[in-house]
Structures are given as C-alpha cells and as structure tokens.
Amino acid sequence: MNGDAPxxxxxxxxxxxxxxxxxASPPDADENHAEPAEVDVPTxxxxxPEATEAAPAAAEPPRQSWFQRLKAGLTKTSSQLSEGxxxxxxxxxxxxxxxxxxxxxxxxxxxxxxxxxxxxxRISSGRYEKGISADExxxxxxxxxETILTPVARPLAVDPTxxxxxxxxxxxxxxxxxxxxxKLAARFRSEGKKVLLAAGDTFRAAAIEQLSVWGERTxxxxxxxxxxxxxxxxxxxxxxxxxxxxxxVAMIDTAGRLQNKSELMAELEKVVRVIRKLDPSAPHDxxxxxxxxxxxxxMSQVEVFKDRAGVxxxxxxxxxxxxxxxxxxxxxxxxxxPVHAIGIxxxxxxxxxxxxxxxxxxxxxx
Length: 366
What we know:
This protein starts with 11 loop residues before the first helix and ends with a helix. Helix 3 packs across helix 6, helix 4 packs antiparallel against helix 5 and helix 6 runs antiparallel to helix 13. The protein is elongated and about 70 Å long. By secondary structure, it is of the alpha/beta class. It contains 13 helices and 8 strands. Strands 3-2-4-1-5-6-7-8 form an 8-stranded mixed beta sheet, with helices on both faces.
C-alpha cells in the first residue's frame, strides 16, 4: 500500500487540536476505499395521488453530541458520586465522620486516596461551624478535579524535525490499542502526513489483519509479517523503511503484554532497544492505551509500562461504556503523564482531545 496520497478526511479542525497545531491539508478523495452508501429499497412502490403532497421522510434521531455521549459513558461514576454526596450532606452535619464518609465515596469512585484527601481537606477548611450543602461539595469536587487534570491535558505533537516521528503504542489486550492506532493514522493522514504503520502484535492474526484494514482505509503504508514473526525485527524493518522513504510518522503496534508477564515485557524492552539502533532519540512518544472500564487495574498498568517501556503519554478509551472515569483523575494526580485524547466509540471521530473542564463537569453531574 502506498502512503503518498492522502486518504479520506476533512476533519482538520479537531485533528489540529489533537495534534498540537500544524497546517492541515485537505485529503484527496479515495474512490477505491469509499464505503458504499446504505440504501433502503422499498418492496412495493405506491404512487401518491397527484393532489396530495408526498409525505416527508421520517427524520432520523439526531446523533448525540460528544458531551452527551461522554456524560452517558461516565454515568456510573457520576451517579455514584452524586448520590453519595447527596446522602452524606443532607443527612449529616459537617464533622469528622461526615468527611470520612465522603472520603470513602471518593475512593470507591476510583479517584484515589491522594485526591480524596485533597478534596476533604478543601471542604473542611473553615467550614465546621458554617456547614456546607451537597451542591457546594459538588462544586468544590469539580474545581479540584479540573485543577488536577488541567496540567496533563496536552495534545499529541508531532515534531517535524523527526523524520519519521516514531510512536510506540503499548497496552494490554482489549484496550482498543490497534483501533486507536487506526484513528490516529486517519487524523495524521487528514493533515497530509505520510504515515507508516507497523503490525508489531505478531502474536495475533486478527491484530495484523485489523491494522491492514486501517491502512487501506486511511492510505497509510502497513509493514506486516506472518503470525509469530519476531516483533523486534519487524520494528527495525519498519523504522528503517520509514527513514529511507522519508515518512512523517511511523506508528508501531505491539502485543497486548500483560504487565505481570515478565517475558513479554522483556520483549517490549527489546523492541525499544532495536529502534534506538537506528535512531537513538526514538521512540519519540510511547503511548499507553488504557481501558476506562478497568478501574484500579489501569493504575498498575501505568506503573509497570512506565517503568519498563518509558511511557510518555496516555490515551483512555471506552468512556462510552460502563466507564470508571475516576481512575483518570487518580492516574493524573499520581503520575502526571500527559493525557492526549479520550475515546468514546469505534468511529474515527470518536477519539477526541481531552478537555479537563468538560470532564470535571460531567463526572460530578453539574
């Protein structure tokens, strides 16, 4: 597949926000990969009387906005927090027991001990005699969550002096890593960048096939080998090709390495070493893809991948499901790693820049 001609796109406004600016070039239409339109064919056509106007077609239900979909995905966390706060602060006066109960609620919502302590300290400061309402607690919670998240909300910036800019994508199976690579490829291609994808998850035929499909859809070049091939060798070949043929971006998929599998983590370290033989500064980004539904397990994934693979940034997916969104706050407070984007669906447009204020308002149902 050739990565010279841009693929389908036209979403450059949001893309430039996600990737930290840069002038976007509208992609050329790709007729070879256009998806056929779905057409409803009636089984019987009855002409309308001449004197009667044709009835209007039934309107399709409007697509929910990004905010509405994010709110729906975080319902589990926001409901837990809101109901807990209401129960505590309408039935009890503000005292040490009340604050302990609030702290328990925050920890159960995966916000983390440090964040819970920070919020209860803020609420208790000078308020024992005055008291506080449930709405005031929610306002303080939203403010503190936004304060924690704002420093980590950073777009994924591709450095044009790196040719190619090499991104190593890591994460356990089931997080949506390969799909995220495809969405990022679509966004890079919409900016007119020449993109190479390396199918480094050589353990799974489905992952190789999935990345190949994304290459076809986006016009990105895909480097793949047979199932069971050496992942480090494939990464070396892919980076070498990207350097020789002047690609802007090379994204390398990796196997879903469970963080308690030392041999697999060792192989990931080998991939990094091999890449650095060609470019000592690479990989320029190591992006960990996290599943928002896993709660505290995501925290341990960050810790291990950060230590073993040098993670530089995060993408959190599956915020459209029964997401436990509080864990993103706990991860930000503990590790301070950039959160480049969040995902709420399978479509190309369902990976969006991370907005702390929006996330904070949704999580407390304000």
